[in-house]
Amino acid sequence: xxxxxxxxxxxxxxxxxxxxxxxxxxxxxxxxxxxxxxxxxxxxxxxxxxxxxxxxxxxxxxxxxxxxxxxxxxxxxxxxxxxxxxxxxxxxxxxxxxxxxxxxxxxxxxxxxxxxxxxxxxxxxxxxxxxxxxxxxxxxxxxxxxxxxxxxxxxxxxxxxxxxxxxxxxxxxxxxxxxxxxxxxxxxxxxxxxxxxxxxxxxxxxxxxxxxxxxxxxxxxxxxxxxxxxxxxxxxxxxxxxxxxxxxxxxxxxxxxxx
Length: 259
Hints:
Layout: E1 4-9, H1 13-23, E2 29-35, H2 38-48, E3 52-56, H3 64-68, E4 78-83, H4 89-94, E5 99-102, H5 107-144, E6 150-155, E7 158-163, E8 169-173, E9 176-180, E10 185-188, H6 192-198, E11 204-208, E12 211-214, E13 218-225, E14 228-233, E15 238-240, H7 246-256
Parallel strand pairs: 1-2, 1-3, 3-4, 4-5
Antiparallel strand pairs: 6-7, 8-9, 8-12, 9-10, 11-12, 13-14, 14-15
């Protein structure tokens, strides 16, 4: 992951210096600026558009909540409030602070706050990257792709079109085909081979005679032994390949450098 751009805002020089010192242990933190009051904080957030802000609540000019009420700063970065006034705790979380450090805090508590913020920011950035990727793929499909981009599904008298890019995987179920999106599952009367022939082979991987996986939703691939692999998807599903697809999967792993 790229560096997390971070601001430190506190009117007390020693408090700012301690936060900066504690942040030195995190190689993914990049301190963009230090601010000693609310006005400086507003300007710095506008200028740097940080991912994370350590924000003191009680400051002489504008308090932390005054800073966050400035609409020019929206969408807001992730906030870790730092203050000696615990009566602000509930209000801090009302404005969706990612964490709250009550002075005096120890290094262990500080580390937990930073690591929690890191996970939240990473999820957000992963989601943004994934969304942009989907947009690009949709545009590519609409403009030039010969492959299937929409799948017509008829259920209970209703017809809907499902974007192929939203499908996690296909799985044969008797005479039907299970189409798994998030969070829904659909059944259509179709064969897996017929569907596979219409899909972009760079996006979908056959791992079993009855399973076809969208590689955009792959989280991990593990070797299970006996020439079988476990495919972990981002929706929590775990799909096991069959031995007959060993060569195809090994070629895919080598190409994508997943080993």
